[in-house]
Amino acid sequence: MDHRRKELVANRRKTPAGAPKIPKFVKFHKDDHAVGCDEIFWEDPLIYEPRKDPNGRIAHWGLFPYNKEGEEEINGKRIYNRQRTIQYMYRNGRPTPEQQFVNALIDKKLEALQAMNIEEYSSRDYVLHVHAVHMPKLPNSTQDRLWRKVRVSGGLTLSVFVDKVFTPMFRFIRNLHAHVIHDLTDGALFGPKGCDAVDMMHLPQTGYGFIPDDDWQIVHIVREKGDTMCIQYDFGDNWYFDIKVEEVIPAGESTGAVVILGGSGTHPPAEVTPWHWADLLRTADKNNAGREETLREMFASMNYASLPYSSAYNLEFFSVEETQKAVSGAFDSPASLRSMSKHLNQDFTDVDDGGQSVRATLAEHNQTLRRGQALMTFPVYDADGNPTGRVVEEGVSESRRDNPSHTACANCGSPKNLKVCTGCRQRFFCSRSCLRTAWARGHREVCSGPQSK
User: Fold this and answer.
1) How confident is the model at residue 359 (pLDDT cuts 50, 70, 90)?
2) Does an H or E element contain 232, and which?
3) Is the pTM of this model over 0.85?
4) GO molecular function terms here (predicted)?
5) What is the mean pLDDT of residues 311-329?
């Protein structure tokens, strides 16, 4: 038996069906008996048939099966147990069979992306309808309960769209959780490069790997009316939002500015699953006691900490003006440092040392601060405004400016014709008009440039 044949035979493993089979592409470690490995990883990633939902959509690289009801079945326990078992076998950069398979899919997708000619599309604005997938409908209605409509430039990078549009649009906390964007035509995933968010531990249950989202634009995924992509936000709680193109604006009528056009449903509380929030909304629909229960839990979440509790709060409340202000505020700030995401830690304090408070946290970022970056901590309060004894720790950019190819106008959100402000050299603007508007709105307070701009 020649060497190649011996190698193939040695790589034979029993599939979940119990049949010994030689994988067509991946290679197993000699001690990896493939226990808990999905049968799809015996296929060739370049020609395999991805798994689809009943509507023909492909998510998570097409890796996970669907049940009879058309729901994706991701066996998190099986995946976790397998990863825990094989982690010592695949060390020092050696990829697992699952990673080998997905890495090949990533390379294939990158070739397709690089071959695209998107110039015609990136100059257009797009009206996007974004709605939460697992929410109940409004009582006695077929209308989506939690949705937003926004106009954006197709040339906006995916990373900027998630960080400065999607996240503040739903009042999620920026740089707290990981995310991926699903290309539903082939299941390709795009996510934050170098992200150290806590929920990255669930990456295997999400698809094992993704393409960095800072090099690719919205129109690399959706370009025509009716095209849909999906954002999966927070790998632990797993919020899914479908994003559908409702209208394509001709290039001659496109401004590139990000404009909130409408929406419905109050912002979901942080740190709850969409299924739990859906149950709370149904509870609130029943009676006043259920409504009180829902509001109490909502106001106890981190993203409602700045608001006083109100029993009269409207759970269907949405404000175009407030949401536009939140998105504009995100654009007038540095990009989130994904390698130094927010971490929620216990705070051991009040150790007096010559009048100085000594603060320690259970965990610290393991990243070395670069020039222009700082580590910040923020206290966490409960619904009544009392300190909880917990702090949020995050790396922030104090003087490092965004990469000009991975940002947008600090005033309107356009990614076109960007030039750095010559005063602060931190913010980018697409025109002198936007610079003047930002100057009048408060940029003068943080900029050392002359007011004559």
Assistant:
1) very low
2) strand 228-233
3) yes
4) zinc ion binding
5) 94
